[in-house]
Amino acid sequence: MVQAVRTGLEVLLSEGHPELDGRTIGLVTNPTGVDRQFRSSVDLLHESPRVDLVALFGPEHGVRGVAQAGARVGFGIDARTGLPAHSLYGETKRPMPEMLAGIDVMVVDIQDVGVRYYTYLSTLVEVQQAAHEAGIRVAVLDRPNPLADLAMEGNLLQPGFRSFAGAYDVPIRHGMTLGELAQLIASERGWAAPIVVPVEGWSRTTWYDETDLPWVLPSPNLPTLDAVTLYAGTCLIEGTTLSEGRGTTRPFELIGAPGLDGEALARDLRARELPGFAFRPAAFVPTFSKHHGQICTGIQVYLTDRVTANASAFGIHLLEAVRRLTPSFGWAAPGDDDRSYYVDLLLGGSETRAMLDAGAAATDIIATWSGVAERFAERRAPHLLY
Fold first, then answer.
1. 170 and 78, same structural domain?
2. Does position 339 have pLDDT exceeding 90, yes or no?
């Protein structure tokens, strides 16, 4: 049965909020900030008499979503509203004091995907930090976590490995909304509690496609809910020299590299009998990103049962298999961060990479995550809204 759901944006526009009505606000958003008629929160809040919108702030990909993954975004003037559009994925990832001048509340309206290394969580942390330092409030117009909260997956960040690919020590798949995360972060850091305009009609065990909300791809390389569901695992391929399918129509579902034996990789993964997954050998040519213009051979990953599939654990099995079967395998450099390898930033530590390099089995690595979900469940419990 489809659940009738109203987002925090729709609730605010319809009913207002005592702590937001009449306030001067800055808005952190992107193309996912829409109502069910696909109208942008930028335009809706700019026209609304409930608030005075004076500035826009864009996470990765920008306010209007014109930038590719990893592309730096500069300052601009929004063409439709004439408002200043500050980039939080360019010269700075944290709002500077001058950007916050005259603002009473920083309002966040972004569709997150429920995975730690997705950068919208990192943007939320930076916005909260800046707002705390400036003495202004943060408000989240909440949206559902698209991944049903059936299980938490993966490890926690280790000391010294915080980065924009992992800004807070939550599991890889944490099962929380941005509003809930904002409450958790503020509580644990001793900041003022955020204002959260909650979702109405949503239960946390509901997948996004079980609601009546329209789907807007949360970023250019996550076009489908299947891709979002796999992302907790297949994003780890970003930490290698293999292609994770960027530059194809199936990013995070196609995995490969020139010279990889896709038949052998599919056979290896099938033999592991991982619940909820199926594999076929595949060939593809990325139009951009790693190995662009080259024939990559590898696999396409299929979700056969998203309830039993543990994408984070699958990601470790995938790393173990491709490391052994790919002649050209290597760990990707850290990029803008000079610490260790990029996969260490995704996984929140160097232990997993070191174990793989030493020949450890995926099952042994996954066993080190024992107890993480239970401990985190206790931490997050006071902050759950649904």
1. yes
2. no
